[in-house]
TrEMBL record:
Superkingdom of origin: Bacteria
Protein name: Xylan 1,4-beta-xylosidase
Residue span, DUF6440 domain: 7-58
Length: 61
């Protein structure tokens, strides 16, 4: 990882109270879904999976 580069980057965001965000690990390319009904109550984070049950991976340049 290049010095000063963020390890995780947000590539998609939807909603204000009912939030869904896609976060990519810049070292592995693995995509995560962060979801919350209300950010004050709690959130959930999970690896995004493709139709074959494998992690969704974004190619890293």
């Amino acid at each position: 990882m290049a010095k000063g580069k963020d390890r995780f980057v947000e590539v998609y965001s939807q909603g204000i109270m009912n939030v869904a965000k896609i976060i990519v690990d810049t070292e592995t390319g693995v995509n995560y879904l962060l979801a919350s009904h209300d950010l004050r109550v709690g959130t959930g984070l999970t690896v995004m999976m493709d139709q074959d049950g494998k992690p969704v991976v974004t190619p890293i340049k």
